Each structure stands twice: as structure tokens, then as C-alpha cells.
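Re: [help] complex structure
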Amino acid sequence: MTKRKFGLGLSLMLAAGTMLAACGSEEDTSTGETGGGEEGTEEAADFSVAMVTDVGGVDDKSFNQSAWEGIQQFGEENGLEKGDGGFDYLQSASDADYNTNLNNLIRRDFDVVYGIGFLMEGAVAEIAEQQPEAQIAIIDAVVDAPNVASVLFKEQEGAFLAGVAAALMTETNKIGFVGGMEIPVIERFEAGFLEGVATVDDTIEVDVQYTGAFDKAELGKTTANRMYSAGADIIFHAAGGTGNGVFTEAKERKEADPEANVWVIGVDADQYDEGQTGDANVTLTSVLKRVDTAVINISEQAMAGEFPGGETITYGLSDEGVGLADSRGAIPEDVMAQLEDYQQQVIDGDIVVPDTLQ
Amino acid sequence: MSNRMTNLLVPIVSVILGLLVGAVIMLVSGYNPLEGYAALWNGIFGDMYTIGETIRQITPYLLAGLAVAFAFRSGLFNIGVEGQLIVGWFAAAYVGVAVELPKIIHLPLAIIAAAVAGALWGFVPGLLKAKFHVHEVIITIMMNYIALHVTNALIRTVSDGGDRTENIFASASLRSEFLENLTEFSRLHLGIVLALVMVGVMWFILEKTTLGFELKAVGFNKNASQYAGMNVNKNIILAMVISGAFAGMAGAMEALGTFEYVSSKGGFTGIGFDGIAVALLGMNTPLGVIFGATLFGSLKYGALNMPNAAGIPIEIVEIVIAVIIFFVASGYIIRLLLLRASAKKKEAK
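Output below.
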């Protein structure tokens, strides 16, 4: 009896599978035609951009996402649609996938292909050599090739302001810094942050911890737990997905005790939404790294036929490539005024923020 | 139904079933399975470039699978292939950048360095297992973490605080202009030849040498082997060392072929863990490992084309690939079903 049922189930599944597969194909051919035929011929600009994410993925709430938002905005402004001849992205599951993904996009004739993240340095260098006609841009790394535009950010300047804000706001005189991996980009954040804190008050203790990963929220949570328990009231994270755990810990503390004095400073994108718990929000501010601005700028230059190949473009406070996000009232007026003062000093060059740890 | 028929039918039915369930998943999530599978096929065999890249992806899986399978045959569960691969990767890349030698010395030296590093990483759990009966699973898992963070620290030191080493000298590279031109600049490298030779080496050790006989005997029954006068402890250590050497060479494939450098990692590569599945799919035989590695490598690589050509999100693609492998791995269930079905028929007659 049971055997028969099993057999029946099996054949049912097979039948359902084939039937479903059949209707699926019909449905798609129609959408495929309408989708592919029209775009490009209308008022849309004859220009296309695409990007390859690193292993963080396109929804990392951080620089991959920021880059993708930039590309989407650029696409909208120029009447482009997602897909061939418009804009698109490919996600990488491992380091070995970068070459293939970059190559795939170049073969699909995108005018500019972005490699997002320092992890892609090797792949971009290699592909640029093999495909001298392609225009590639890389974020957070420098590749010395005539057809590659390298984009760097002065993370230390944004982090400096975050350090100033944290130092002015802390009540316990203890601040935490949670880093992802000990790599130059994150160390620029650390260096700037430490400098900012020390500029205000060099007796403030900063607890610096690296988790060794960008995708381990649970590690971020335990690290934040230790810091808050040790008396820190503000934590700045530069740890991508790991940093989401810092937010979780802060929110849990806020939920348990609405009077708890816990704050998180977000990174890369405005992470205000991450910090929302009920009516309260634990996000003090975020250090913005405007990958989206950079992507849009370079796309526009390329569309005008002036792709900055072979150049290294550095975005800092002065050109709004980095900065602090709107604190939405978390930072009081008098502190904001001081922050603006410091910001002006950095822009004017009166304060030079170190990009490495002393 | 004859036995041969069943043997042939089982893998075919399991692959078809896997594909069908995968199709249902794509349909339910609103994507066209035919387009998806066409993209998968083209992603594996589409042109010379993809074929080259597919073989490139298979190469480390072959060696990682061999490493796991070899330990299994001696009754050891080597979860540490991942860590052994990482130290092998670093060792090969280090030798590749640190010195410049004629190719005929440099390349073998880099590969041997990787094998030795991996072997060393396998020696520690082997020794602890043999001398103190510490379970190798615990030790190898911990050795993975040690490998990950120690190599990260070493990379920082070697590159003066950077996150990756320089590219290795051409004299240590496994890449060949011939293969690159043949496959339209894919990263296919000569490592595949080495990997296939190693399949032969494993077969030879296991089937044609006294050592292999003893290793298998220890795998079947430790006590009986001891009673028969074999040195069980020596065999356990040797099995882990050889397994580690295979894993280290898998790392050399990445260091000298695919990447030509080593960069600090935020997490495991996954190749070592997939190697467990590769070995088990291949029933821990050298030939079976070829099958397992080919299946794993092709699907993993081909899957990249599904978001590219068919617009299916990578998350759905990963589920579909997992389902296909799941069905292939559960061949035993399908065999059972087929046997029952044929028994039914006989009864009815």
C-alpha cells in the first residue's frame, strides 16, 4: 500500500513538473519579447552600465548596495531599463567568480563595467589587460591600466567627523570601534575615527576590535555586547554585514531598557533604518561613503566620451564623497555646530586626517 | 529489471528528478525554468571560454575530493581539507613571489611547498589521533580556523600591511599561453593535468601498494589490523599526511593557476567543505571523485550564467543547484524505488 502511494506521488510530481515547465515557457516568450524589443530604441540614451558585486551581495546595506543605487539612479535619469543595453548587476558567490562576472558583462557590451570593492583588484587588472577595449572602473582599489578608472575615498575624513561626534556625545568616556578585516580601507576608518576622538579629548578610551569578517552578524553582536557591558555607550562599526549585529545588540538593549544610553554609528550608507526599534532609534549618525555619487559621476563622464581611464579619482569631504548622514535629531544643535566647524577645517586643509595608524 | 539497467537508470533518473524539482522551484518563484536551464547549459558548455573556466573550477574540487576520500578510506573523517587548502594556497603563493627561479625548478618547488604545508596541517590531527585518541573531526575543524587566521596574519606581514601578495612570478605559474589561446583567455591552467595525475596516484597507492592495503585495512577494522601486525598509529598519521598533501595541492591550484596570488580572507573558501560532498558522491573512489568533482564544478560554474543570461537571482539559483545535487546524492532512494517497482511488476505477472 505504502509503496503504491509512493509511486503515485512520484508520477504526480513528474507530471506536474512537466506541465508546469510547459506553461512556464509560453508565458516567458511573450514577456521576453515585450521586454527586449522596445528598450534602447526609444528616447533612452544609447549607453549602458553594469556592475559586479563582491561576495557581500547587492543588498549588503553597504557599498555594494550604494553602488547599485547609483547605477539605478543613473539609469532612471537617462531612460535606461534593467537588462542588456541598459543597466544590470551580477553578484559574486566567491572570489573566483569575479573574472567570469566581469567578462560576462563586457561580452554583453556594457559601456562601463564597475568592479565594486578592493577584493576585485586582481580580477580587474587581469581582465583590463585581456580586454583593452573595455572600460572598467574599480572602487576602493587602484589598478594601473589605461582603460581602468580607479576610485578611492578618504574614509578617514568621514570617520574623523564620526570620532568628533562620538567624543562630544559620550557620557561614559568609553567608545567602541568594530572593524571587519584588517585591511587598508578599514584601517583608514579606524585611523580617522581615533584621530577625531583624540582631537576632542585624548583621555577618552577607544576599544578597537576587529572581527575578521564582513559577513558574521553574530560576531558583531557579541563584540558589541562586550563593549557595551564594559561601559562603552557609542560604537562605530566599519564591518559591513558584521556591523548589523552591532545594531541588533544595541536595539535589544534599547528594547530591554528604553533609558539605556547606547548608540551606533553606521557606515557607508545611511543606516538610520537599521537602528529603528519601536519609537526609538539607536543610530547616532552614519559615515557616508558616496559610492553612488562616484558611480554616477564616472558614468556621466563616460557617456560624454570622457571616461577617466588610467586615472585615480579620490573623493573626500570637500567634494561630498564622504560625510556624515543626517542624525535626525540624535545629535544636538550645539554639537552639530562644532561638527560643522571641524568639517570646514578639514575641507580647508587646516586639519589633515592621517590615513594610516600611527 | 536487470542489475545493469538499474545501475544505468539510477543516475539518470536522479538527475532528471533533480532538474524537475529545480524547475518547479524556478516556476514557483516566477522564472522560466527552460531559459534557466539553457543558461546553465551555456554557462557550462556555451563556448571555449566557459568550457575552459568550467575545467578550471573542477580542478581544485578534484584534489579536495581526493583528500577527503583518501582519509575516508583509512577510516578518518578529514574535515580539515579547507584549512589544509588555505595553508597550501599561501605556501605556494609565497614561494611564487619570494624567489625567482627557472620554471623547471620554481613551479615544482611551489607545488611541493603547498603539498608539504597541507601535509603538515594534516600531520597534527593525525598525530593527536594516533597518540592520544583525540577525535580528528574536532582537531581538523579547529585547524581550519587556525589556518584561516594564521595565513591572514602572514599575508599582512608579507605584503607590509596590505591585504594580498604580489602576483607570483611567471616561472611559478601554472597558466599556459596555449591553453589561454585555446579557450579565449579563460583561466584554465595546467593544474588539471596534475589533478588527474593525482587521481592516478591515489588509485595506485590504494590498489597497488602495501601501504594502500594497510590503510584500507585500518579503515575497515582497526583492531583486526593491529592484530594482523600492522602499525595502526603509523597508518593513521600517514593517511592524514597524504590527505593533507592532496588538499595542499588543491590550494596550489588556486595560488598558481586561478588567482596567481593570495589575499586575506574573511571566511572559508568552501572548496574544502564541498570536497566532502565530492568524495561522498564519488563513493570515495578515485574515479568517483572525478565524477563528483565534474558535477560540482560544472554546476557551480554554470550557475553563474543563470543570473547573467536568464535574470534569475543567485539565491534561487543556489537552491536549484542544491536540489540537483541533493537528488544525485540520494541515488540510493531512487535505486530502492526502482527495485520495488520492478518487483511489483513481477508480482503482477
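The domain at 155-288+328-348 of chain A is CATH 3.40.50.2300 (Rossmann fold).
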